[in-house]
Amino acid sequence: MLARERLESADVLFAGRGACFSAVELLQESVERYLKGYLIAKGWKLERIHDLNRLLDLAASYHALFRQFAPLTQSLTEQFWAQHYPGDDLTDVGEDFIQLRQQAGCLIAQIEEALRPPSP
Prior knowledge:
Elements: H1 2-17, H2 21-41, H3 52-60, H4 70-84, H5 97-115
Helix pairs in contact: 1-2, 2-3, 2-4, 2-5
């Protein structure tokens, strides 16, 4: 699964290099793929977007508990875009990686639980 692979890559990179830009980008991409996977499972037609805030809003329309992850998606989206376009201040990119990674783990666990088939 590409989402899990990106998440593991972010963890390995962070362990070796700390909060670098690439670790933040891998974390953002992982959360993006998990949210898109959840939405596709709910019947959503894939859109080529990278805005985690929009994806989270769509996920919250299916399950309100996703709203609690708005600070995560806001921070990851801002940091992702800051790296991709010249002129942004990159000073704070990655400084909250540990907290973002913990929150991402909680979001991913919620997605996995929501998609788990019911027990017979």
